[in-house]
Give the backbone structure.
Amino acid sequence: MPLWERQIEEWLAEKPERTAAADFDGFWEETQSLAQSQPLNPEVVSVDYPSKKLSVYQVSFDAFDRGRIQAWLLVPNTSASEKLPALIRWHDYLGFRGRVCTHLTWALQGFVVLVPDIRGHGDSSDLTHYSWGNNKGYFAQGIQDPHEYYLRGCIADGLRAAQLLNGREEVDPDRVGIIGDGLGGFISLWTAALTSQINTIAPVSPYPCNWEQHVISASSIAADEIKIYLTRYPEHEETVWNTLNYFDPVNIAHRVNCASFFPLGLQGNAAPPQDSVGIYNLIEGEKKLRPLPYDGSGAGIEDLICWMQERLKP
Amino acid sequence: MWTFDLPLEELENYKPPRTAQPDFEEFWERTKAESLAQPLNPELVPIDYPVKRVQVFSATFDGLAGESDQPPRAGGWFFIPEDPGPRPALVIYHGYHGYRDRISTHLPWALMGFVVLAMDVRGRGQAPDWTEYEGGHGLGWMTRGIMNKEEYLYRFAYMDCVRGVEFIAERPEVDPDRIGVLGGSQGGALSLAVAALSDRPAIAMPMVPFLCYYPDAVKMARENQYGELNNYFIRYPEREEQGMKTLSYVDNMNLAPWITCPTLISVGLRDTTCPPSTVYATYNHLTCEKEILYYPYDMHSGGGDAHRERVIEWAHRLNP
């Protein structure tokens, strides 16, 4: 047995401990209800594109609370009138939605594809009135209060994106999947846990997970940003962990009940692979782990194509 | 103002004289004739792929034989879209340290309606290099056979890539008047070379092309592709003259005037792998319909997906 297989077996035997506060479920029930009752006010503008095999739109909708999310919507042109399967693609931390061509692989297979910019990234605004300033990046924004924390908006926007896609007339609401890289994988886990609108998710090296462990041991930007905050304001340590526990996938993974596919590059640093396996262990629904022992994070596209073809049948 | 290379205004007019030797044309006419006389012996092996809108094959055909009795096989992924034919086609070449890559890398082109061949370049991926070189060489491929133009790796690599275009032109699914070539870096160099050495391409879309104007390249480039040449000339300074002479035969600046199809080039103005002056030197020798898109903030990414959108636009001239 190769060394990495033994390593994975060890990881598979460990379930991370939940760190949820007593009102964790209430907090998310409230957030979900607010996110889904706020009108989307979508705007859809057609974009001219050279390939006539698809229609391309620039879509925007109201972000959770305040601000506006901008997204690509790619719709395959089909002669048949039947509804199509759909995918949301969430980019990684500090990334952006990319160009239209970045997503052709999926749209041209026959998926409707929605690709939003995460709030504060790309063209999507983050208009949260944070009560503090910031040090660097996004992960410490609003960390003083779970209701204000940056990731609350990201997750709520994730729910709203799913709502928007489910409501599109060309979309078959029973065949909607999410692919997310890194922070995008984090958003997909959360969306799948909080709604039943998702058929399948593929969190690719979801990040951050297992917050306290992550900050102490991972070499990631998220860990750095939290450490900067804690070195400046050591007296906030308890507040920081308290807030982050509301946003730790270890506390929500057991609620993911759609089918999940984890392509897992074992050489990833930003998202330590054992964290992904920990989340995987907590998921109670149908699930599949695909270890890629010699790849970094973000690998496994061919396996992903195979999975989405089987699950969503474009 | 200090910049890594010449300022843009000077790049736009930068046209050093070609370094072609007197027998440059004869050399390539002979090589082309040698290739044409040699059959392709194509073979397709179907690949089971989850996306059923395209048929995927691993294609092989004979590479340029040279002195060898048994030519090594060249080839790559071959895609046939479901759309009724005859279709336009694209031949795609990879970068210096690359390979034919995964099927999914090329899938969008096939799904847009192009027949696609994504090749392994000689000595890379699944394409063996069987040339019986007189001696050894440095790390990589740049110095393989460098002291003898007849055995230099890129004489064979260029012709294998031309043969890739021949292979696709002979396919019944393909309209031979609608063939495009593209690739980045070494793939850009190969697209230029094929457009110069074959009448087949109707369009060429080289991105941040490599193998352009060696006299500048070996002095400026900071990365290890052209650097393999520097290391060789450091070891054997007495071989520089002969080595540079060999390189002149495969210099895309020298091949540039032979290109007749419309050509779209990209360049990163901070590119230390394929420096802008080497790209402009080549571009300014093109006499075909041409366009160059420069990306002031890019290094070897050369515009990335932003440029890829322009390539998709250009490729649609072939009416997929």
